């Protein structure tokens, strides 16, 4: 799984560098995969570490907050 923001960032770096970037196209895919893997591992480690420290009520609050935020962004464009 590749983070789309990471893919866009690396694509902008490679295309923005123009001729100065040697082998940029060949390094793009492994760079994006490595950056995404690093980010996913970081999130997993933080999640496990925080999960061990939090109360059993915390996941329910996190789910409610997450779904509330998604619902807010889903309804928000209709208000404008």
How would you summarize the topology of this molecule?
Elements: H1 4-17, H2 24-53, H3 58-79
Helix pairs in contact: 1-2
Name its key features.
mainly alpha, 82% helix, flat
Flag low-confidence runs: none
Strand content: under 5%
- Using the CA coordinates, give the radius of gyration: 19 Å
Cα end-to-end separation: 33 Å
Shape: flat
Structure explained in plain terms:
- This protein has 80 residues and is mainly alpha-helical.
- 82% of the residues lie in helices and 0% in strands.
- Helix 1 (4-17) packs antiparallel against helix 2 (24-53).
- It is flat.
- It starts with a helix and ends with a helix.
Concise overview:
With 80 residues, the protein is mainly α. The chain contains three helices and no strands. The chain has one domain (4-79).
């Amino acid at each position: 799984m590749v983070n789309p923001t990471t893919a866009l960032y690396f694509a902008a770096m490679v295309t923005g560098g123009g001729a100065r970037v040697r082998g940029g196209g060949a390094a793009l895919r492994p760079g994006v995969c490595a950056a995404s893997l690093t980010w996913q591992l970081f999130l997993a480690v933080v999640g496990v570490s925080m999960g061990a420290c939090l109360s059993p009520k915390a996941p329910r609050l996190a789910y409610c907050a997450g779904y509330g935020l998604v619902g807010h962004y889903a309804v928000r464009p209709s208000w404008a």
